[in-house]
């Protein structure tokens, strides 16, 4: 049996992992301390929070949001951030679908001692997914679910009076998104996706305190701390293109672990040429959510549902925009809203 | 090897879904001419325990990148990875980071 490797930090404990970012072997206690200190460092150096803020933590019951909620509660107490933290979960209203993950969120709420708010699509939009599915049929309900999901955290957090949203996106997620936007030539998203604090102007600011944390370390942190989370079917299943991107990233990481941090860095440092036309970003006339069209996609879909013409919102966006906004004419040379390509970017941690 | 090896295998983070949702498996590895290293163990798991979608668990003769392996609570990267030779009563944990939540 090989002799156990000793911790390169304290020199005493038996090393429990090799850190992907630095290659250093650390014992459990030194790793936990270093990991917590680094997330604190990220929060402080990027000035993610102000004292007195109410922060809604998007809680899906999965590994990233579970670790995020645990860390924010801990660091808020340890370093006196002065934040009011609350957990926000979204229930799409699909019978059976969220039962297990919401159960995991509820178990964690007990352990964390943070208030939990579960908001349903019914409360946020007046329609549950089951009811939408009965109206639009199984072929189109994914469009509705995806569009509504992108806004659900924003609408929910605003409803709860939060000042900011924190999501569990980790370094691997950001690296993957940088890579995917690059592969797709989606310059608008490429410029935004590596930001640690985004939003403002009509929408709530969103931040990613785990942006520099490797997935491997998040999972091992949860394992060593005995955090309980819910895992669902493989992330390869739903979106083939993202799946391939993820595989590529994992394969690169296996050869050179710094690939993840390097890609995040590339995303941060990329400069877009002055003469590149960016999609115009405006605000939805009805709900205030970011939209390049007078009405955001969610409001268009809702309007269709409420008028009893649920298929209105699917396909041909510009003609519909014109019909719904009536008098107000859309600007000439309107840009296709990049937010409308479905499944394009996983912006919410569910 | 004089006697069969008893080891505890654990699957988590969603990897258990490939094993009928069962997390802990107490297994006895039969006597074989050479030593039982992790490379052999993976072949044995593939042939005896895995229920579905091999490609989500293995790639080549190793685990798929994104599946973490702990041997007696330590990262297998510190233990020789595929070359680690199993001892009786060892505990091997496989945690998927590839499953969403
Ligand atoms: Zn140590
Ligand atoms: Zn709107």
UniProtKB/TrEMBL annotation, chain A:
<dbReference type="InterPro" id="IPR011063">
    <property type="entry name" value="TilS/TtcA_N"/>
</dbReference>
<dbReference type="InterPro" id="IPR014729">
    <property type="entry name" value="Rossmann-like_a/b/a_fold"/>
</dbReference>
<feature type="domain" description="Cytoplasmic tRNA 2-thiolation protein 1 C-terminal">
    <location>
        <begin position="283"/>
        <end position="312"/>
    </location>
</feature>
<comment type="function">
    <text>Plays a central role in 2-thiolation of mcm(5)S(2)U at tRNA wobble positions of tRNA(Lys), tRNA(Glu) and tRNA(Gln). Directly binds tRNAs and probably acts by catalyzing adenylation of tRNAs, an intermediate required for 2-thiolation. It is unclear whether it acts as a sulfurtransferase that transfers sulfur from thiocarboxylated URM1 onto the uridine of tRNAs at wobble position.</text>
</comment>
<dbReference type="Pfam" id="PF16503">
    <property type="entry name" value="zn-ribbon_14"/>
</dbReference>
<dbReference type="InterPro" id="IPR032442">
    <property type="entry name" value="CTU1_C"/>
</dbReference>
<keyword id="KW-0808">Transferase</keyword>
<protein>
    <recommendedName>
        <fullName>Cytoplasmic tRNA 2-thiolation protein 1</fullName>
        <ecNumber>2.7.7.-</ecNumber>
    </recommendedName>
</protein>
<dbReference type="Pfam" id="PF01171">
    <property type="entry name" value="ATP_bind_3"/>
</dbReference>
<dbReference type="InterPro" id="IPR056369">
    <property type="entry name" value="CTU1-like_ATP-bd"/>
</dbReference>
<feature type="compositionally biased region" description="Polar residues">
    <location>
        <begin position="340"/>
        <end position="350"/>
    </location>
</feature>
<comment type="pathway">
    <text>tRNA modification; 5-methoxycarbonylmethyl-2-thiouridine-tRNA biosynthesis.</text>
</comment>
<keyword id="KW-0819">tRNA processing</keyword>
<feature type="domain" description="tRNA(Ile)-lysidine/2-thiocytidine synthase N-terminal">
    <location>
        <begin position="55"/>
        <end position="233"/>
    </location>
</feature>
<dbReference type="InterPro" id="IPR035107">
    <property type="entry name" value="tRNA_thiolation_TtcA_Ctu1"/>
</dbReference>
<comment type="similarity">
    <text>Belongs to the TtcA family. CTU1/NCS6/ATPBD3 subfamily.</text>
</comment>
<keyword id="KW-0963">Cytoplasm</keyword>
<dbReference type="InterPro" id="IPR000541">
    <property type="entry name" value="Ncs6/Tuc1/Ctu1"/>
</dbReference>
<keyword id="KW-0820">tRNA-binding</keyword>
<keyword id="KW-0694">RNA-binding</keyword>
<feature type="region of interest" description="Disordered">
    <location>
        <begin position="327"/>
        <end position="350"/>
    </location>
</feature>
UniProtKB/TrEMBL annotation, chain B:
<dbReference type="InterPro" id="IPR016155">
    <property type="entry name" value="Mopterin_synth/thiamin_S_b"/>
</dbReference>
<feature type="cross-link" description="Glycyl lysine isopeptide (Gly-Lys) (interchain with K-? in acceptor proteins)">
    <location>
        <position position="101"/>
    </location>
</feature>
<keyword id="KW-1017">Isopeptide bond</keyword>
<protein>
    <recommendedName>
        <fullName>Ubiquitin-related modifier 1</fullName>
    </recommendedName>
</protein>
<dbReference type="InterPro" id="IPR012675">
    <property type="entry name" value="Beta-grasp_dom_sf"/>
</dbReference>
<feature type="modified residue" description="1-thioglycine">
    <location>
        <position position="101"/>
    </location>
</feature>
<comment type="pathway">
    <text>tRNA modification; 5-methoxycarbonylmethyl-2-thiouridine-tRNA biosynthesis.</text>
</comment>
<keyword id="KW-0819">tRNA processing</keyword>
<keyword id="KW-0963">Cytoplasm</keyword>
<keyword id="KW-0833">Ubl conjugation pathway</keyword>
<dbReference type="Pfam" id="PF09138">
    <property type="entry name" value="Urm1"/>
</dbReference>
<comment type="function">
    <text>Acts as a sulfur carrier required for 2-thiolation of mcm(5)S(2)U at tRNA wobble positions of cytosolic tRNA(Lys), tRNA(Glu) and tRNA(Gln). Serves as sulfur donor in tRNA 2-thiolation reaction by being thiocarboxylated (-COSH) at its C-terminus by MOCS3. The sulfur is then transferred to tRNA to form 2-thiolation of mcm(5)S(2)U. Also acts as a ubiquitin-like protein (UBL) that is covalently conjugated via an isopeptide bond to lysine residues of target proteins.</text>
</comment>
<dbReference type="InterPro" id="IPR015221">
    <property type="entry name" value="Urm1"/>
</dbReference>
<comment type="similarity">
    <text>Belongs to the URM1 family.</text>
</comment>
